[in-house]
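Supplementary Methods. Inverse-folding protocol.

Structures were first reduced to a discrete structure-token string of length 782. This string, shown here, constituted the complete conditioning input.
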């Protein structure tokens, strides 16, 4: 077998090593345009988990790599004169040059041919090769030669960055967030060998301009960075080696394989440096390719296995890298945060590290986070404990005169079980049990302001006395038997009305017994849905009156809070999204025009709703569709409602148009809540695939929302909050009838939690940094 590998970076060399081990008879050649020791960059970083992989696949190179490595366990965050350190991270750094020399030596030893100073133009010279590995890096010529086939998408990010080095020793992976007269600068720095550290500097495009970095040469810009970070560098110089400022390209290729050619490493996909995974991805690609070649009987089949088997993992890492890079791009959102909350945000930015996870690794740090959170709550007038603060989920919140005892919320969820809009026994049990279960706040399902405002024949309403009496019974039960507050969500289905019950066909038009629908524009939801009538001014006035009347009935029922539903493609949302609003009057066109009617309705309700009671608005912060609402629009929408007197923005997404392409995942809507909260400076509630109390605490402690709503988790577990309170040892209200159950779970949780922590701590393998520290520790005197 003949294998040609273009590019002698980590991907190409490691692929050569693994393939040669597998097929000693194969003729494997690596073609590299540079000289053997002619390498850019400073250090590379691997996690302990990646090193475990290297150990398994090629012990000799693993041993040599780890002999050369610098290990560290801590991450240190420097911000506004403070430093927060968190241990247990298990990372290693090594010089990129040393890594490449080790891999070259190992490849040679196995019999791979390495041809340096050999620039390859096209693949024609490899006509007799069975496999051609394209490992030619981020600017891959071969990916571009076949651009139509590989279909790379290159997303050039807005921040500027440059790699530099220094002789400054570091004992932790170090983030420095530095305020300057021009704006914020960030340094990501780590030691990779004795007396050498990597420094990646990053800043936004405007700060870059203001700092006069445009047009400076490498040395001049290193001098500028040395001025900014001089206080930390302690007289150590910054070193340069192709240290030009650039914008990071996030590369994703639609296809990785063409005939017998395969893309590997940066050529196929990149991951932002802030999660330190470029070299790891490159070498793990090589592992995946070697595995696929070992299993399959033909090269063709192996390449298919490689692409299909590896894609999900790469996309997961890229997604984590995306989330992380966006955090760094928007660091100014958090610039006025308490430093410990800021540091918590840095640590948890990419979802893998959470509140509970940090509690195990760095309990002191989490205690500081809890105290800072409790201090904020105290500054709002609550007499909360600062010595033993509870977890953020159990800290109270005040909106106008309404106080909620904790931050867990039952999200609004239609039960499709009302008769002529009247909630019945099912609803009483449903809301009643969730209130008893301990959530601080409970939202009703979307309750419709008129018969024709319903989504389905099973939707609840609040337009007549019978409905008002039924809701009063529920509200009274909640108030009499729990500490929960209850919020009425009012809405109008618009073009998504007159549809079947959820379990009979979500959003599908009723075949019989339907009613006429209205919307901002006459656009059906499905092609076969009813075409809604475009609302005229008379209809707008009528519907506005219905919203106000329902709000007044809500006050008569005793609801604590009111929410206006402006999300999910229903009537008011249909005005806000440009995808559903094609009007040419003053209610269409610009965002300000599209917001005009929803704001009018909100203001009329606000005027009718008691001033001491809060109001929220639910929005779809993105339509997940081209040309639709984006996070930036959501900030403008939130600001507009904020000016109109909204107390909380309930940040959901999507469901506007049928062909939307949401990117689901854990806590997938939380970044929008983060953006709205910290840019529009309004209180927010986030929701969407949040399933654990750990996630709730992580979101709250990082300042990404003020309340956290859970929908589906509450459908199966009305006592979600009670259980979480037992776990965190926080108090939560419980009716006297259920106290024995509460006492039992609280008692058992202390032991369960101890067992869990012991298991986690015992089960956790020692990091290499810990092992190295143990090995070099002087023996204790007998
Ligand atoms: C300027 C710069 C500095 C960096 N510094 C660091 C750092 O300090 N730490 C870190 O972890 N990561 C660093 N990275 C990122 C890291 O190098 C990559 O994520 C990782 O090396 C990817 O490995 P790879 O093998 O896919 O690509 P590369 O390492 O880029 O290897 C590709 C190789 O292909 C060769 N090549 C390209 N075209 C041809 C051709 N036509 N013919 C023959 N050979 C060709 C190139 O010369 C190169 O050696 C840096 C990247 C850049 C651009
Ligand atoms: C059965 C069901 C009914 C829902 N009904 C409503 C509703 O009436 N109003 C609303 O704003 N959202 C409604 N939603 C959306 C939820 O409030 C929530 O935003 C969504 O389920 C995502 O959160 P989760 O992952 O915690 O379930 C509904 C969701 C479900 C599962």
């Amino acid at each position: 077998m003949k294998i040609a590998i273009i590019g002698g970076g980590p991907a190409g060399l490691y692929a050569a090593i693994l393939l040669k081990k597998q097929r000693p008879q194969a003729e494997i050649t690596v073609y590299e345009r540079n000289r053997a020791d002619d390498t850019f960059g400073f250090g590379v970083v691997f996690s302990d988990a990646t090193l475990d992989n290297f150990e398994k696949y090629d012990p000799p190179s693993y041993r040599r790599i780890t002999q050369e490595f610098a290990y560290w366990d801590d991450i240190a965050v420097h911000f506004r004169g403070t430093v927060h350190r968190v241990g247990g991270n298990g990372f290693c750094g090594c010089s990129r040059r040393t890594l490449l020399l080790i891999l070259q030596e190992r490849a040679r030893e196995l019999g791979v041919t390495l041809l340096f100073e050999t620039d390859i133009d096209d693949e024609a010279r490899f006509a007799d090769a069975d496999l051609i590995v394209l490992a030619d890096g981020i600017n891959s010529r071969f990916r571009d030669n076949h651009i139509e086939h590989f279909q790379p998408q290159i997303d050039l990010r807005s921040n500027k960055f440059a790699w530099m080095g220094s002789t400054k020793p570091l004992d932790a992976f170090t983030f420095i967030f530095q305020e300057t007269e021009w704006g914020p600068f960030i340094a990501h720095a780590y030691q990779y060998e004795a007396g050498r550290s990597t420094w990646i500097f990053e800043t936004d495009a405007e700060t870059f301009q203001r700092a006069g970095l445009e047009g400076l040469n490498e040395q001049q810009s290193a001098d500028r960075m040395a001025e900014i970070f001089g206080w930390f560098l302690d007289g150590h110089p910054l070193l340069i080696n192709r240290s030009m400022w650039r914008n990071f390209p996030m590369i994703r290729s639609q296809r990785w394989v063409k005939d017998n050619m395969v893309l590997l490493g940066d050529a196929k996909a990149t991951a932002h440096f802030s999660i330190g995974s470029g070299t790891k991805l490159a070498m793990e690609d090589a592992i995946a390719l070697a595995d696929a070649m070992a299993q399959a009987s033909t090269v063709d089949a192996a390449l298919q296995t490689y692409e299909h088997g590896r894609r999900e993992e790469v996309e997961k890492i890229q997604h984590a890298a995306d989330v992380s890079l966006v955090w760094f791009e928007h660091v100014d959102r958090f610039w006025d945060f308490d430093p410990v909350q800021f540091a918590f945000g840095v640590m948890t930015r990419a979802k893998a590290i959470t509140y509970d996870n940090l509690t195990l690794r760095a309990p002191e740090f989490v205690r500081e986070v809890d105290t800072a959170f409790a201090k904020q709550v105290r500054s709002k007038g609550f007499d909360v404990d600062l010595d033993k603060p509870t977890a953020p989920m159990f800290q109270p919140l005040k909106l106008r005169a309404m106080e909620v005892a904790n931050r867990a919320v039952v999200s609004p969820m239609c039960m499709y079980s009302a008769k002529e809009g009247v909630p019945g026994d099912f609803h009483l049990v449903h809301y009643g049990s969730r209130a008893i279960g301990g959530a601080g706040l409970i939202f009703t399902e979307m309750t419709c302001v008129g018969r024709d405002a319903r989504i389905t024949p099973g939707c609840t309403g609040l337009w007549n006395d019978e409905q008002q009496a039924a809701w009063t019974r529920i509200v009274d039960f909640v108030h009499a038997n729990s500490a929960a507050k209850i919020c009425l969500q009012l809405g109008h289905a618009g073009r998504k009305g007159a549809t079947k019950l959820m379990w009979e066909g979500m959003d599908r038009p009723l075949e019989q017994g339907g009613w006429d629908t209205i919307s901002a524009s006459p656009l059906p939801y499905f092609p076969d849905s009813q075409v809604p009538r475009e609302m005229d001014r008379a209809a707008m006035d009528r519907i506005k009156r219905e919203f106000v009347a329902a709000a007044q009935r809500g006050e008569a029922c005793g609801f604590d809070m009111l929410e206006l539903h402006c999300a999910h493609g229903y009537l008011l949302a249909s005005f806000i999204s440009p995808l559903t609003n094609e009007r040419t009057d003053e209610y269409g066109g610009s965002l300000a025009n599209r917001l005009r009617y929803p704001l009018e309705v909100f203001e009329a309700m606000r005027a009718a709703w008691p001033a001491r009671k809060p109001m929220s608005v639910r929005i779809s912060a993105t339509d997940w569709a081209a040309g639709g609402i984006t996070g930036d629009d959501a900030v403008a929408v939130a600001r507009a409602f904020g000016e109109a007197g909204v107390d909380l923005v309930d940040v959901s997404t999507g469901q506007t148009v049928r062909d939307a392409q949401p990117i689901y995942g854990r806590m997938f809507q939380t970044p929008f809540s983060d953006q709205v909260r910290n840019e529009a400076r309004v209180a927010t509630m986030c929701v969407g695939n949040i399933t654990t109390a750990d996630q709730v605490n992580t979101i709250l402690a990082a300042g990404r929302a003020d309340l956290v709503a859970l929908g589906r988790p509450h459908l199966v577990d009305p006592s979600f909050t009670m259980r979480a309170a037992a776990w965190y040892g926080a108090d939560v209200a419980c009716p006297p009838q259920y106290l024995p159950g509460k006492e039992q779970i609280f008692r058992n949780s202390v032991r369960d939690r101890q067992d869990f922590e012991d298991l986690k701590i015992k089960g956790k393998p020692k990091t290499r940094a810990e092992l190295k520290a143990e090995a070099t520790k002087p023996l204790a005197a007998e």
